[in-house]
Amino acid sequence: MTVLLEAGRVARPSRRHNAAFWIVGYTFAVTMAFSAVPTPLYVLYQSRNHFSTFMVTVIFAAYAAGMVASLFLAGHLSDTRGRRRMLAAAVATNMLSGLLFVAWPATAGLIVARVVSGVSIGMLTATATAYLSELHAHARPGHGQARSEIVSTAANLGGIGLGPLLAGALAQYVAHPLVVPYLVVETLMLIGVAALWATPETASVPAERPAYRPQRVSVPPAHRATFLAAAVTGGALFSLFGLFTSVSPTLLASVLHNKSHLVAGVVAFTVFGAAAAAQILFGRASRRSQLGVGLLAVLAGLALVTASAWAASFPLLLAGGIVAGAGAGAAFRGTVATVIRIAPPEARGEALAGLFLAGAVGLAIPVVGLGVATLWVSMQAAVLGLSVVLAAVILAVGPRLLRSV
User: Fold this and answer.
1) Which pLDDT does position 11 carry in this prediction?
2) DSSP letters of 211-267?
């Protein structure tokens, strides 16, 4: 199939760009997977280094801090430095994080390694998403962006889910559980970064490199209330993801008395797998449906997760994770669509940067609050408190967001 361009040229499908599309999708997925490899291993680090649940949340917050800094300082540089170069730099940075995890397993080393991993993900997500979109456009001109959006979602959220699943299985059945999972995923990333050199550049890199500036963040003045509601909602949804990638293994071990690393990985996988599936299934639904159904599912999932902690029920925890994860995936897609709609085209990137900044803040602060709470109250009470706060936030801003669509 060919597509006529405005200048009269004919764009033809490119096999090279199609192959590159799958290389980038693979590299995106395994790098996101690495960012969540520590999830089922935190219990082992707690036993080895003798730190509390609070310190687990601090280590997790270090990842979010690195991601925020990277979003501001480097997340946008692929527009002027090139997609392939910045993607390779992001993967190499995460590989450095893996070396730190292996060589410096002390608590301070874990914090530094998580910061470095966060820096990598801040560079990766926007770069890989844009790269996939442009490669798809060259590979299948005139076919729309559905394939690109599905693969990007699967690589992003699905990759985060695969990381704990793989790490949990290796930690459960292979010797050296704090070394082997990192080395395995390091190898997978090395394959991806090596293959990147065969992919064509798609960004229009200027001949003269423009002066560096950090990423700007702007709020559309005419829709400030709607943007604020979307940002606060996004922060609450990311808090849910943070709960399952930080303290859920501790909840499993200490409250549900299930110390299987594989089970901890399966729980995280189901949450992010459900989120990815929901984003794909709700792709053609209206923004109102994405937000309304998604937020209701998050509330129901939070209730199930809280009940699982008090009833010491693994089936309730798994069900809550699936329901809440699916709801968060659908609702977050709705918040992104809302911000894209209200932001002027020339400020769309800056508005989305503000949304993802709110998400990164939500990823860290409420989870650290839960960690602080466990210093004085039981894990069950801390989970109840976090669930009540998140539910209150969603109930406060959700109706405002729904009225805007």
Assistant:
1) 55
2) PP-PPP----GGGHHHHHHHHHHHHHHHHHHHHHHHTHHHHHHHTS----HHHHHHH
The predicted pLDDT at position 379 comes to: 94
Please indicate, yes or no, whether residues 112 and 247 belong to a single structural domain of this protein.
no
**pTM confidence score:** 0.90
Q: Which residues pair with 3 in a beta bridge?
A: 11
Gap between the Cα atoms of 366 and 31, Å rounded = 25
Which tokens in the block code for residue 2?
């060919």
As a whole number of angstroms, the distance between CA 243 and CA 237 comes to 10
What pLDDT score does 12 carry?
A: 67
> Is residue 27 in some structural domain?
yes
Contact criterion met (CB below 8 Å) for 217 and 62: no
CA angle 250, 271, 192 (to 5 degrees): 100
> What pLDDT is recorded for position 110?
97
Closest CA to 42 of 311, 390, 367: 367
The pair phi, psi for residue 384, each rounded to 5°, is -60, -45
Distance of CA 305 to the CA centre of its chain: 20
Identify whether the C-beta of residue 313 lies closer than 8 Å to the C-beta of residue 267.
Answer: no
Q: Residue 139 in 3-state DSSP?
A: helix
pLDDT of residue 59: 95
- Quick one: 226 and 258 in the same domain? yes
Is 290 contained in some domain?
A: yes
Q: Is residue 9 part of a domain?
A: no
Which pair of tokens denotes residue 380?
């069950």
CB distance 334 to 294 below 8 Å: yes
Q: What is the DSSP letter of 130?
A: H
- Regarding whether 52 and 138 lie in a shared domain, the answer is yes
Residue pair 131/7 in contact by the 8 Å Cβ criterion: no
The answer on 274 and 313 residing in a single domain is yes
Residue 127 lies in domain: 14-199
175 & 234 share domain: no
Q: Which residues of the chain have pLDDT under 50?
A: 1-10
How confident is the model at residue 47, as a pLDDT?
A: 92
Tokens coding 151: 């693969």
Chain centroid to Cα 254, Å, comes to: 26
For the four alpha carbons of 15, 19, 24 and 25, in that order, the dihedral sign comes to: positive
